[in-house]
Design a protein that fits this description.
Two copies of one chain form a homodimer.
Chain A: H1 2-6, H2 15-22, H3 26-42, E1 46-51, E2 57-62, H4 66-80, E3 86-87, E4 91-92, H5 95-98, H6 101-115, E5 122-126, H7 130-141, E6 144-148, E7 159-165, E8 172-178, E9 187-195, H8 199-210, E10 214-224, E11 236-244, E12 251-254
Parallel strand pairs in A: 5-6, 5-9, 9-10, 10-11
Antiparallel strand pairs in A: 1-2, 3-4, 7-8, 11-12
Chain lengths: 255, 255
């Protein structure tokens, strides 16, 4: 029952459904729901909202607590600031963190909590490092993932392709989404691991329009302080990368 | 408690840990473990194995039931055989399924059940479509994911790169893994969405050796019947693609 709620956000389950499934009386299902709600809240996962009325029913909303978010992000910040992560060119290596399911699940829960009320249909991301985070977020939001690819693939069928300009290096790049992947009129949440100038995010926003869908939001794990003006206005980032000192290995991240 | 077990396979939790965490007596924790085990088994997720002895403790092993696996794969096979999935060139479109967390979680549970006793440290996959399945599998196995990339990226630092020959088109391709991503002496499970001749899988196996690690297994969602002889011997596939008829849109998949 816990699993069904947890990964079916916003989906209303009728009391009858559980009564039949577990061959139980309404009163005991109601009691179980009450305990489950307490457990979800205590563990900072979210809450179960019960509808009164003739049929009855309940649905789950992911809602991580502020303390849990803070604790997690402080820990993640610490891990990101390890000197050995600094690469030539002042880049920061963090793929190991992004591809660790324990960390990704938490990132997904944080984004899902932020956008829980937006009734997101698709989490859209750009290959490659955005994928695990988009999957985890979609899992909690009961949504599907769509991946924009750098090259159109023969195995994906007809695609919608756009050109976009990377905000930092001003190069022209291409991204494609399979036409079959998105139905029109849906709500799309853009999720990515990193934002520098926001060129890729802007490209994704344009693709959302091309598919006649609406934008539910843009969530990124880390954005960089420079450049200050991004190519998209309204986005939500968890951590801000202030500076990377290639010589000393010092990494300054603000939470 | 359910969540902690579910996503920490093979990790032993002491009874004391739960007693302290939930401020409960050993007897009631034991009773909860008993109920949890029953629930996991009933839902075909796995089981909790309790260690007797002075300290006591329990760990979870993912173990989906044969019936659940059959039911899921029969359903997946039906979805894959939809005519509209056939693309020019006889390719089969299935990204929407691979990127649906509900489906991916089940695929992950099936692979995790198969390799639960192998004490897997890393699930290794090739970008892009293998990623969601590797993440879901790693989630149930309490492992991390490593992604081999087609091009080395400046944000990934020093890489180990190998060339491999695609078995079907005999082209030479490149794949790279960041050096930092894998520690020597670990156990690696290779996970991918599709295998034709097995060239990419063979490349991944060679990378496992380059990192002085051992191979726990190779799991793919779909392999094709042709060519019959693959470039790797020992692999586990869930579905076999027999034929795709581009003219009629007929897809023949064997389970």
């Amino acid at each position: 029952m816990a699993m069904e709620f947890l990964f079916s956000a916003n989906k209303t389950f009728s009391l009858n459904y559980f009564c039949e499934k577990y061959d139980a009386a309404k009163s005991s299902v109601s009691e179980d729901l009450f305990h489950l709600n307490t457990t979800f809240k205590q563990n900072g996962l979210g809450e179960i909202i019960s509808n009164a009325g003739a049929t009855g029913g309940a649905y789950f909303i992911p809602k991580i607590t502020t303390e849990k978010t803070q604790e997690f992000l402080t820990d993640l910040k610490g891990k990101l600031q390890a000197k050995e992560r600094v690469l030539p060119g002042g880049y920061l290596y963090y793929s190991d963190l992004i591809f660790d399911p324990k960390i990704t699940n938490m990132l997904g829960l944080i984004f899902a909590s932020k956008y829980a009320e937006k009734k997101v249909d698709y989490c859209l991301t750009m290959e490659t490092k955005g994928i695990p985070i988009a999957m985890a977020t979609a899992n909690y939001l009961n949504a599907e993932v769509v991946v924009a690819r750098r090259e159109a693939k023969v195995t994906e069928g007809p695609v919608v392709t756009i050109n976009y300009v990377t905000g930092s290096t001003r190069r022209i790049q291409t991204m494609s989404i399979t036409k079959k992947a998105i139905k029109p009129g849906k709500r799309i949440l853009i999720i990515d691991d990193f934002m520098k100038a926001g060129g890729a995010a802007k490209g994704l926003v344009e693709l959302v329009k091309e598919f006649s869908c609406s934008l539910a939001g843009i969530g990124v794990v880390i954005d960089s302080q420079n450049p200050e003006n991004k190519m998209v206005n309204d986005y939500f980032s968890l951590l801000k990368l202030k500076s990377v000192n290639e010589l000393t290995g010092e990494v300054d991240i603000i939470y």
